[in-house]
């Protein structure tokens, strides 16, 4: 289920993180929340995700533990583009096997097929299809985590609101934006964080995904806008 763990961070990525941290102060965020926020922003060059994402550190810790145990939790994606962006884990994507029928989209059918294959306890990553996210909620899949970040003007924001209201452990964003790249980035942040429960390995940017360029707690000063902390707690709906 796992791919090779060694990872060489390219100098362009290191420079990207330095620029990101010069423009956005994430130093006050909990470690895994910070890792997710920074990697999503890094993958999109969109600082707006810092206030658009909704996360919960305890849920991220539980998902991190599930992903890094000796027999890791399966990772399921709604589309192959999400799977292509996940670099440290083999994934399940049943969309090629799925068919549509009256009242059921291919994406929703793919969720049913995947759930039959992996059962409860998986990490689900949805970056494209709101109907996949709605079906996942409807099935009651008992996930380790749902990363729900579908993009679009029809159903995307509504599906993410439904995810937050469902009470499932989740990473989502409030707006209509999202997509395969940012959904995969959120999952990669947890995979890159290393095998220590809720911790990080020092293999990123001279430090880690969760430490600034000058180490933990580094602040970029008043010119670096802080991340609003109210978006990084599970919404009570």
Task: Explain what this protein looks like in three dimensions.
41% of the residues lie in helices and 7% in strands. It contains nine helices and five strands. A five-stranded mixed sheet has the order 1-5-4-3-2, sandwiched between helices. Strand 4, helix 8 and strand 5 form a beta-alpha-beta unit.
Give the structure's gist in a few sentences.
The protein is α/β, with parallel strands linked by helices and 237 residues long.
Individual helix count: 9
Specify the biggest β-sheet: 5 strands, mixed
What is the molecular shape? Answer: globular
Low-confidence stretches: 1-5, 196-226, 233-237
Structure classification:
alpha/beta
Order of helices and strands: HHHEHEHHEHEHEH
Total number of strands = 5
Q: Kindly report the average pLDDT value.
A: 83
Q: Give the helix level as a range of percent.
A: 40-55%
Strand content: 5-15%
Major sheet strand order: 1-5-4-3-2
Radius of gyration: 17 Å
Roughly how many Å apart are the termini? 35 Å
